[in-house]
Design brief:
The complex is a heterotrimer. By secondary structure, chain A is α+β, with helices and mostly antiparallel strands. Chain A contains ten helices and 20 strands. In chain A, strands 6-7-8-3-9-10 form a six-stranded mixed β-sheet, sandwiched between helices. In chain C, helix 12 packs antiparallel against helix 18. The N terminus of chain C is likely disordered.
Amino acid sequence: MASVKLTNVKKVYDNHVTAVHDFNLDIADKEFIVFVGPSGCGKSTTLRMIAGLEEISGGTIEIDGEVVNDLQPKDRNIAMVFQNYALYPHMTVYDNIAFSLRLKKMPEDEVYERVTKAAEILGITEYLLRKPRALSGGQRQRVAIGRAMVRDSKVFLMDEPLSNLDAKLRNQMRAEIILLRQKLDTTFIYVTHDQTEAMTLGDRIVIMKDGYIQQVGTPTEVFDMPKNLFVAEFIGAPKMNIMDTKLFKEGGNYYVKPFGVKIPVDGEKGEALKSRGVSEQEIKLGVRPEHMSLFFEDGENRIPCTLEVNEMMGSELHLHVLAPDGTSLIIRVPTINLSTAQKKQIKNGARLYVGFTGQVMHFFDRKENNNLLV
Amino acid sequence: MSELNQAGNSKKHMGLKAKQRLSNSLVYVMLVIISIVWLIPFVCIVLQSFRMESTGRVGYVIPQVWGLGNYTRLLETNFPRWYLNTLIIALVVAILQTIIVLCMSYTLSRFRFKIRKGLMQFMLILGMFPGILGMIILYRVLDDLGLTGLHAVPGLILVSVASSGMGYYVSKGFFDTIPKSLDEAARVDGANRMQVLNKIILPLSKPIVIYTVLTGFMGPWADFVFARYISQLKPLGMNVAVGLQSWLATDTMVHDNYTLFCAGGVVVALPVAILFMCLQKYYVEGVTGGAVKG
Amino acid sequence: MAPTFLFQEHLKGRSMKKYTELEYLRLSKGKKFLYRLLSSLASIPEKLWNGIKGIGRFFAKFFLGIVHSFANLGKTFVNGDWKTKLSYFIMGFGNISRGQVLRGLLFLLFEVVFIFYMVWPQGGLYWLKMLPSLGLQGPEKGYDEILDQHILIPHDNSFRILLYGVLTIFFIVAFVYTWRANIRQNEIAEKILASGKKLKSGKQDLHSLVDDNFHKTLLALPLTGIIVFTVMPIIFMVLVAFTNYDAQHNGYTNALFSWVGLEEFRTIFSWDVGGVNYAATFGEILTWTLIWAFFATFTNYFLGIFVAMMINKKGIKIKKLWRTILVLTIAIPQFISLLYVSKMFDKNGIVNGALQSLGLTTSAIDFWGTPSLARIMVIVINIWIGIPYVMLIATGILMNIPADLYESARIDGASGWKQFTKITLPYMLFITGPYLLTSFTSNMNNFNVIYLLTGGGPTNAAASGAAGAVGHTDLLITWLFKITTQNEPKYGLASVIGILVFLVVAIISLVVYSRLPSVKNEEDFQ
């Protein structure tokens, strides 16, 4: 139970590659924070620096107000779950979980108490005498978590703990981590490349790319107000549609004109543009697939498209359509709103119409790809 | 068309089976021949060690008079002393060499320190110098320390063990295959580096430890060059290799000692070979791992 | 893509034509091979040049580093406090005065030992002073009253002077390094104290030896061994190559030896040294060494793979037994098997006995007395010793070749032979490239097989008079051994040969290593 503070943290490898640039972050006590980003973005490196497994090239890391830069991992009082679980193959599950306690020279009675309690919480009591080899992926994952749980550590670090599990198990374990978090009530730092995990688990999300923090915020903030094009495209699946267009003013109101279709920027977004006095410019316009509506006939502000690929996901359709200039767009359409006749109409090569309102638009400048409204 | 194809195929199929049977029997024949070639010298050596009617070389293999005379004669020579010498050397070298090799290879596998790469390149280059080159000076240094001639045993141990750190490749290759995250997990769990080695890595390294002990133990039985030079052919300071070779130095000696040599060879080879065969699995693991790692 | 397409700069305008990748694809098979061969040969000088440049760069960096660090030392002296300044003269003073007693005492102890060693009457300074001359006063004639005869009374000892001279230089280098470390410590300590932090205590220092400095603990023993028993002897012997150390100048009891520069190198490359053609002898032995290494490596390699494939063949039973029989030659110490086999093929050996009693030959075949026959015999017998290693390695690799490679080849219509040449062999060569290289170089130095089988013989009459009783199967390494162990050893000459062996091995490794497929195209089979 502790706060973690990273100030100007930097990691430069021996081959002069900088993995992390000037990382600043305050993590509050008992907060669940998620580092997310594509591979090679520096998220794991940052976590490993907090753990003490990677030397810190610059800046300071504090845990509970104490600078830990020069401390060995064993002296930092942290617990960590590794991507490949890192269970000790020659020890039984019981010994694996008890390992850290025994290193602390805890009396065997207490070790027994703690290990069995953790095993009970995780539902692995019956496997305590097995070796990791004899366990399934999900069970190994639980042992790894159990090993971290028994320690009463100040900070709980997790490095892509679910990435080796299959999709179904991953969803289940995700829910269990949420439950675990409620039980443990400590500070969590969680690394993942999966934006769904980040959104569902984190109190706050840190989105990273190429060693730089792109945005820090709650799941709602990063979804609704992505700071830049990268965040916008990274969060949400399928990813946000991007259209090259011009933002212009007519009669005091803002308009965009993707593919020659003039659409007014109404609602909150329009007001925000006005109050900031954003100038007319070439922009990248972003609209999420789930925020686009599908029409079967032409109408006002609708973009005529050709259906290219149709992915049936069960509860919804992912339609890949081609806009008039050949740009590819994706639309998510809940199947519940479609009649049988309409479903039949959706086939490759069909003419469809796409529309959206100002409320769901995101505006990014062409040069820096930054959100004009943040 | 398709019918034709099928017919052709089935014919081919039949042919395949017959062909395989033929080629397999060919392989068996060759394997048997190879096995005979491989075994002949060893069979001969064993048979001749039981020959009682003469001591020199003869044109036949199967003894006319069988007996254990050569083996009892061994006891009257310096052979027991050589055997003891070699056994002591082998045991001590096996233990010390294993410790040194493991220290070296574990460090190079797990730690990233400033001179690591340079050190490895340096040792690679050192390895290109012929080892015999340093013999003269090592002899003189050991001589100054009184570890030559009669007292060659500690000298030989010292020489064999001292540079064994350079043979780290195979076990480093093995350590490299143990996931680093195990070390890291243990360090986060509160272990210092030494505890990581003792409690995590070593228990997982049984195959490579056995391999290193085995090669360390077998080396001294075959050590010839250094042993010869350092013992200066002083009878009590020799190991079995130098000793047995000295029995065959000239043609007249061959005439007197040939069967004795065979008996000595059997006594030396038997325990070493049995040990090797028992631990063959680990040896194979080490050799293949080492070659694949490069 | 194979880098052979892209031609090295220095070849521009020479006879080699450059092809683009697409042009290359249109060449005929023979032309492709020729082209690759020529281009790889053409790149050898560049490889060597790069190697030399690399070594040059290393030394440049090394010396720049030294200059740099000494410049820093000056700065530290000017900027440091009085504790630091005093540490330039009394090592460890800064540590002790700042509370790091353990470290300080170790530094101080080292300094005291060093100074004592240097000023001792027969200590470091003495050896250093004698090193350039390797001894001033040789043995002189004297009269022994007890024995009542004239004897030689030895004085200086060249061997000791060279040995302890080298050791002293080692010691001085170590001292300078430690001295510098001592000053660095002050520098760092001042910085840490200035930032308000605490210095590590002796207890913490000891703790770190099993934790973040554990590698130093682990390396201490192995590296000491290597430095004392490998590096030091090598440096010593390289120096001996520049002296006339031999039986007539043993450095103590009969005459001192002294520096002779490149004299011994000149000997080995001379056509006429007292009637002996050393250059030809050396050339002949080197050629045979390379031929031997080539055949010893590749016969074992291909036959080993062949045997492994036979044993691994589908439908072959008792695989384990076949393997165990083969592995016997590894299990039984070589000196027994080789000595025995050597006697088996002797003139009065069992083989000749058998041949004669079967009536196949009338007179004994002199396997070891005929030069070419002896050479063939050592290669053949080496197969017997060497196949099992390759067989073991090949078995491991064969089982690792992904089965789907063969399946897809069979679907593409490849025959068994095609499968072998297009999949098994390339895969094998790819993985075992480094092994082949090391096995080639270690065969060049394969003392045991040659020495135990033939002892180098039969005698090479053309080289009579040359040191070391040269024989037709002698490798450089056995020649070296003979020169140092013969009745009148020539240590200087032996060292020269040792250095040349090193050069040959180093050049081969340098040129071949970077061309190995597993080094060049790491990803191909992964």
